[in-house]
Amino acid sequence: MQNALNHGLQQGLDQQNWKQLMTFKSVAQPRVKDNLASEMNEELTQTQSLLKSESSSADSRVSVQAYRDQGIFYGVMVTQPGFCDVCGELAADGPWLLEDAPNIPEDTHPNCRCNIVGTDVHGRTVLWKLEMALVGLQLILIM
User: Fold this and answer.
1) 8-state DSSP, 98
2) Residue of 121, 1, 103 whose CA lies nearest to 57
3) For residue 66, with 0-12 CB atoms within 10 Å meaning exposed, 13-18 middle and 19 or more buried, which class applies?
4) Gap between the Cα atoms of 128 and 130, Å rounded
5) pLDDT digits (tens, 9 = 90+) for 80-110
6) How far apart are CA 34 and CA 8, in angstroms?
7) pTM to 2 decimals?
8) What distances in angstroms separate CA 63 from CA 34, 67, 116, one per listed residue?
9) What is the pLDDT of residues 18-67, one digit of tens each?
């Protein structure tokens, strides 16, 4: 942002130059050289990406520790809609021991929204156990 402003001040600004420098550009619009709004949007985009990545990293660490605390030692990676090739390949490699599971986003990519879910050694989630218990209960009720 400083560079765009300094560049404009060094050149001497007429009304058109000020307009180019100060015209608002939304984040979705293409970046414009020597435009403060474009520079601010780039900074904002980088900041948002960093915040999402750090949030994902913290969520992943806390989830894995919570599974361990519950006596769950395996996990699979659950991808989100529109997942990338990196995440698709990692998800196909599970289940892992939680200590060997991918660290999100360190082993994936910035802005990754995928997560690790605790499972048994066969990759079945905790819900599988509940479903089996319900099937068993139904069998008992039928008899």
Assistant:
1) G
2) 103
3) exposed
4) 5
5) 888 899 999 999 998 999 999 998 888 998 8
6) 7
7) 0.58
8) 44, 6, 7
9) 666 666 556 556 655 566 666 666 777 788 888 888 888 888 888 889 88
Structure tokens at 31: 């970046």
> Which residues are bridge partners to 74 per DSSP?
97, 119
Q: Tell me the one-letter amino acid at 72.
A: I
Please name every residue paired with 3 in a beta bridge, in sequence order, or none if there are none: none
Strand pairing class (74-78; 115-119): antiparallel
Which residues have C-beta within 8 Å of that of residue 77, sequence separation ≥ 6?
A: 87, 90, 91, 94, 101, 102, 104, 114, 115, 116, 117
